[in-house]
Design brief:
A hairpin with a 5-residue loop joins strand 9 and strand 10. The chain is an alpha+beta fold and 221 residues long. Strands 1-12-3-8-5 form a five-stranded antiparallel β-sheet. It is globular, with a radius of gyration of 20 Å.
């Protein structure tokens, strides 16, 4: 009887663990806002990153605006608090690459999806920057600063690179570049778009930090 009880308990624990694993392996966040050029869009709350134990593969689906004013297309993964740009590993840097200023430059207007890898350092940084909210919760996570694109969804998945000796997703075999090499961002054939938004990002960050200070002040009273 005791043996059966142990088996039942073990099985229940295994099922619960498997369920948690599935929940963490694929999370899709559908965006319902239009940030506008240089605005913030597609906020991914930090709770969506909880449960991932390793690096996270991020897939961003979007549409592009093509007209005389939009001849290049940008989206920058950033921390919700302060809009500090996250340096990521790009999966395929032939059609898009991350510029030194943190913006991912999409070189083909017909592209509708990009992928990159967030490592545990990125995720830990977002968690450390979380700020308290008036309702007793916490605000933090990732958003995107955009130009010429409208994000429709963001999907998070466990990133599992290929076994040793095989090609990693988006990387070369032995002696090649590892997945997500951003060397292309400084390649002489890949020019960075002049975003001119440093002031915007700094101002947005100042506003966010000021808001956090007000919240923290209210909490202490």
């Amino acid at each position: 009887m005791k043996f059966r009880r142990i088996l039942a308990t073990t099985a229940a624990a295994a099922i619960a663990t498997a369920a948690m694993s599935v929940a963490a392996s694929a999370v899709t966040v559908t965006d319902d806002t239009v940030g506008g050029d240089w605005g913030g869009e597609a906020t991914v709350d930090f709770s969506n990153f909880e449960g991932f134990e390793g690096d996270v593969l991020v897939t961003v689906d979007f549409t592009t605006t093509v007209d005389d004013a939009h001849t290049y297309w940008l989206l920058a993964p950033a921390d919700c608090n302060g809009w500090g740009k996250l340096t990521v590993d790009i999966i395929d840097d032939t059609l898009y690459y991350q510029q030194p200023d943190g913006f991912i430059n999409v070189t083909d207007s017909t592209l509708t999806s990009i992928q990159f890898i967030l490592d545990q350092d990125d995720i830990a940084s977002m968690e450390a920057n979380m700020t308290p909210t008036e309702d007793g919760g916490w605000y933090g996570g990732m958003l995107f600063q955009i130009y010429g694109v409208d994000i429709t969804s963001v999907t998070l998945e466990d990133y599992a690179p290929a076994a040793e000796g095989g090609d990693a997703e988006g990387g070369d075999a032995e002696g090649g570049d590892s997945a997500g090499s951003t060397d292309g961002a400084t390649d002489e054939n890949k020019n960075s778009a002049d975003t001119g938004v440093e002031g915007i990002a700094v101002a947005a960050g100042a506003v966010a930090l000021a808001g956090a200070a007000v919240i923290a002040s209210r909490k202490r009273k």
